[in-house]
Amino acid sequence: MAQEFPGCPFERYADDVVIHCRTEAEAQKVKLAVEQRLKRCRLEAHPEKTRLLYCQDSNRCRAYPHIQFDFLGNGFRPRSARNQKTGKCFTSFVPAMSRKAMKAIVLVVRRWRLHRASDKELADLKRMFDKSIRGWVNYYGRYCPTASRRPFACINRRLVRWVMAKYKRFRGHLGAATLWLRRIAREQPSLFSHWRIGFVP
User: Were both Cys, which of 14, 151, 157, 195 would link to 185 (CB 3.0–4.6 Å)?
Assistant: First the structure.
């Protein structure tokens, strides 16, 4: 890339690579050159995963077969956005937590079985689980945090069930348990990292 295409920025992690090109013709040329280089090394690009994508947004409105991709747990695709100064809506091509990453996090949260830890206090749950939550918030919450709602909502649902299991007065009272936990989240947002960025029960 440095020798043949110095004007094309790229990112690589292990065998996953994203290369940025200005035109479709340039992208076709780079793709062919990379495939030929890999072939000389007795390697080959994945026939299904190796493809050209168009970063569609409000300024790039062409129709194209592929307009989204996943890279390092993030899904890159056109998303609706709003200008904070003017309030005008537009389309931006930005990353957010991918659906595959969401499913993986939800599986981890389910394995925690935190709703069964009725012998623990909220501070104990924070100590046990918030390190992982903080990592997810820091990694996925930078560009489009609202798209990460699903896994954090899963954590909140488990916490509500924990409240119902721990306190007799909330057993069988989902709404009351949710309101109680919401009040705690607003009073002590630092307890869990996803509360701190607004994902409260």
Answer: 195
Q: Crossing angle, helix 149-166 and helix 99-112, to 10 degrees? A: 10
Contact 102, 144 (CB under 8 A): no
β 69-71/89-97 pair status: unpaired
Sign of the dihedral through C-alpha 127, 132, 135, 139: negative
Contact 121, 134 (CB under 8 A): no
Q: How far apart are the C-alpha atoms of 185 and 178, rounded to whole Å?
A: 10
Q: How many CB atoms lie within 10 A of CB 58?
A: 13
Q: What is the pLDDT of residues 20-51, one digit of tens each?
A: 999 999 999 999 999 999 999 999 999 888 99
Structure tokens at 62: 């062409």
SS3 33: helix
Query: Which of 28-37, 81-90, 111-120, 171-180 is least confident?
Result: 81-90
Pick from 103, 94, 34: nearest CA to 58: 94
C-beta separation of 101 from 73 below 8 A: yes
